[in-house]
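Here is an idea for our session: we take a single protein and study its fold together. To get us started, please write out a protein record for me. Once you have written the record down, we can walk along the chain together.
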Amino acid sequence: MASTIYDAVGGLPALVRLAHAWHERSLSDPVVAHAFSHGYHPDHTRRLAAYWAEALGGPALYTASVTTESHVVRLHSGNGEHREMDERAVACFESALDDVGLDAEPDLREALVRYFTWATAYMATYHGSADEVPDGLTVPKWSWDGLVGGTDSRPGRPQPQ
């Protein structure tokens, strides 16, 4: 087994393919597409892939070249609770794994789905207002065992032991 999920996936090129497949599935889902109804950056899939790379054990491409974690969380905050959208986004992600051939290795697929499910909930932490998001958040890291202790920098969040 590869040492990181990032390596097991096949690095950034594979994550770009996955991000593109997930984005296409999301845009075709009538509920999930609402999240993109106000527009999105033209390089959204490459940015998303860079974010996933950083979270899954790869290089810090996202925070080194795009923006901060606090900014990312603010972009996803202040939208109220949206459980159905989150569940459907996860379903789109699972289908995207199949679309790009990341369904052959059960341990990898499980780790990716666990990450994406957790990350979807994490991004919705501050559903009341983006103003609640503190400065200085860092990208939480995810390993084969789940959230890496000490990497979720949200105030008051318990860390795995």
The CA atoms of residues 102 and 109 lie 7 Å apart. The first strand starts at residue 142 and ends at 143. The radius of gyration is 15 Å.
